[in-house]
Write a structure and sequence with these properties.
With about 550 residues, this protein is α+β, with helices and mostly antiparallel strands. The protein has helices spanning about 5-15, 70-80, 105-120, 135-150, 170, 180-195, 200-205, 210-215, 225-230, 235-240, 250, 275-290, 310-325; strands at about 25-35, 40-50, 60-65, 85-90, 130-135, 160, 175, 175-180, 265-275, 295-300, 335-340, 345-350, 355-365, 370, 380-385, 415-420, 425-430, 435-440, 445-455, 460-470, 485-490, 495-500, 505-510, 535-540, 550-555. β13 (about 355-365) and β14 (about 370) form a beta hairpin.
Amino acid sequence: MTTFSQRLSRWMQARMIKGVVPGPYDITVRKDLRVPMDDGTELLADLITPVGEVRPALPTVVMRGPYGRRSTDTQARALAREGFTVLAQRCRGTWGSGGVFHPQLDEQRDGIATHRWVRRQPWFTGSVATYGPSYLGYTQWAVAGRMQRDDPANAPDALCLITTMPDFGAITWDNGAFSLRNALGWTQMMDRMAKRRLLPLVLAMLRPDPKLTKAFGVLPLSAGDTVASDGPVGWYQDWVARERLTDEYWTQQSHTASVPDVTAPVYMITGWYDIFLPWQLRNHAQLAAAGRPPRLTIGPWGHVSAGLGGPALSESVAFLKEHLANGPNTRFAPVRAFLTGAEQWHDLPAWPPPGATAQPWHLHGSGLLSQAAPDGGVTRYTYDPDDPTPAVGGPSLQPDSGPLDNAAHERRDDVTVFRTDPLDAATVLAGEPVARIRFRSSQPSADLFVRICDVHPDGRAMTVCDGIRRIGGIAATGPEPDDEGFREVEVRLWPTFHRFAAGHRIGVQISSGAHPRYARNPGTGEPAATAATTRRSEQEISHATARASRIDLPVWQP
């Protein structure tokens, strides 16, 4: 009779690597190896090895994460069946490993110690690769650039980075707005893992969690973890209290600056609806600028989409065999991207593809989106933090992240909409749209949320991409108001590769929130951790001809 935990493991495995055919090798598993850290703390790891001789020798793969054996078991076993020796380690303070878990803060020193230890073991195969998604990708970034600079003999020989980034502060405070749904949802998940509360954990994957839903509505933000997890959680308190990404708490765990130091081959895979997408593509651009562009795949996936695991594994295996075992090159181009709207894969020489050109499209007071200059006027709407503008679709940690119909959402009084006339010909966007909005608020602080939708002839307005920017407040940056109180606010939207068919319209929404994806802005400009008073905001968008509000769309001609 199978146990509940076994059923949970099988369910998670089925979602992670759907459709993967097992490799030819039998495997052996040694559980709970003790890996010593420099301070004497021991971290637990499993060693999964192929049975028999593997020729040519394949790299030893290091996977480091905080989610326990069941989160890595399927991937580690699949890699071992392909001939790789795999060490799957649990981070400090998680799942039996010694010490206390402080998210991100210990991963560089522990990762460096682990890599040095691996190369001294009798089962080491001669080279090291790293592999894994999300936090397991962050642990790769934490060591790769630093070791390449200071200890190249022990640095990883290749990286496989799946839906990840090297600076979790940048996503926690996204352009000044607190990513409430991700931060509080992840905190609750990790708290339940630590307490081995597996049934609530599984149920939260299947339906909305009532405690989490209630916590999203709590003010001040510093009380949310108590509602979601029955008590304060140290790192969540740190997150909400530190709005400035220049705070040492955040800078010490950011590894963005060391990305160009990575000289090992890098494979990246992500999705258009992944929570880390813009930052991962900017890391790609950093390496490309250094003359070492990674191999890149961008598909129609969110962070935990069932269809992501198979390509991530199979393409990583081919990549590692090519670079570290003289295997064949299986890619026609360095970039493979899925064109949404056309539902087609494209092989590209680079990202963004050559020829993508920013075209300015102006917001008119009539609601028109046009390349023609507007003739003045102001669009007004009211934002009420006690009835915050809701999030509709978009990137999340849930399986259903992705495009949703915004038609009903756009009828809200706190959402303004601008649309093109029906397009005469298909139009493809490839890159990061940038909105430049002349904006004024009646309160000291406000958020500007901008979304592009594909408006179908039948009235559906399907999500394409979006972005947010906080104006005013403790950590917000940006231009000062002019003599009329307007600010020229720049909002960079999520990268996209989307085809608008002829007869469709390009739609742009502007609002002042997307709750609970982002915490609502109370309007007072007070610290987010303690702000409990809310104020309604009267918002204005200027269509003045001289400094017209617009959005620059990266139009690409295939």
